[in-house]
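2.7 Reproducibility. Because tokenized structures are sensitive to small changes in the input, we list the exact sequence used for Thioredoxin-like protein, including any N-terminal residues retained from the expression construct. No trimming or masking was applied before prediction.
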Amino acid sequence: MTYDSTISFTLDTICPWTYLAYRRLTSALSKYADANPSSPATFHLKFIPYQLYPEVSKEGEGKYEWYKREKYQDSDELMRKYTAVMGAYGRGCSPPIHFKFGGTVANTLDAHRVIQHFQEEKGEAVAMGIVGSLYRQYFEEERHPASEETLVKACVEAGVPEADAKAFVEDEYEGLQETKMAISDQNQNGIDAVPHVVFEGKRRDISLTGAKEVDQYIKTMDKIAQESG
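Resulting structure tokens (single pass, no recycling of outputs):
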């Protein structure tokens, strides 16, 4: 009998570092499964909501100018360095992430509401499809992260019937309080940065903060598996 380990992945859908971590972690999960078909541990991914910028409006504002003002001292030079670094990290993924820096930065509460609802209703694979689509749309296609169009498209790409996706997305109150409570729980647990990834172990949990390399995620899974016997 194998040990079922939940990997709790705390994210925000407009955080580039969580996109990197998500892509690296999913790559690690695939590589680990291929290399360890008889592993004593089986890993399952669960998404936990967190808002880095809860004060940002749902309508939002221009992403490039917002980042330059709020995070890089209104400096063109610092923004050039940031975009160069993120671009390099993105190209290092397999397949590569083609980061773009235009578009709109906006409130992510509705995105989290959608992820949490369909994760609960449809399961891990659908939730992963939604998360992957939201990241790609925001970071690579410069789509609005809170628009109904973006949210419905993410659900449909993940296999949710379009009518079901539209009905949920358009009802802005369904699942709202549960999502807010989940975010509040993370704040109370002392989470102040994402990605925050917790590998649940039979003997102990292992927490990793920040976007780690693929090999580090694999080594962590190895440790969890070794302690599962």
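The longest strand covers residues 3-11.
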